[in-house]
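Sanity check

After download, print the first record. It should look like this:
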Amino acid sequence: MSLSVEEMNKELPLANVLPGDAVPYYMASGECARYEINGQLVTVIDRAADTGGTFSAAYISGGMGAESPFVSHAVEHKTLYVFDGILHVWLPGEAAS
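Expected structure tokens:
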């Protein structure tokens, strides 16, 4: 489903469900999909399907020393915000130090 801005502004947002399409929605605290991966809690707040393929977003919480396997996205962008702690990122062609 592809909506114009005018059509989208007339739509009531879906509540507490990832829509799978670029339509208005909201997620109440604690209502998102959550996964435990390598000792880290991943809380998905939207996926590429929910944003017209533009981006996806998740909160990732882990303890000191938590690690993640290599992650790659073919289409959407990846932006990382660190709210607390330190994040080390290795890009292709760079040697880990």
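If your output differs, re-run the checksum step. Summary of this record's structure: The CA atoms of residues 84 and 92 lie 25 Å apart.
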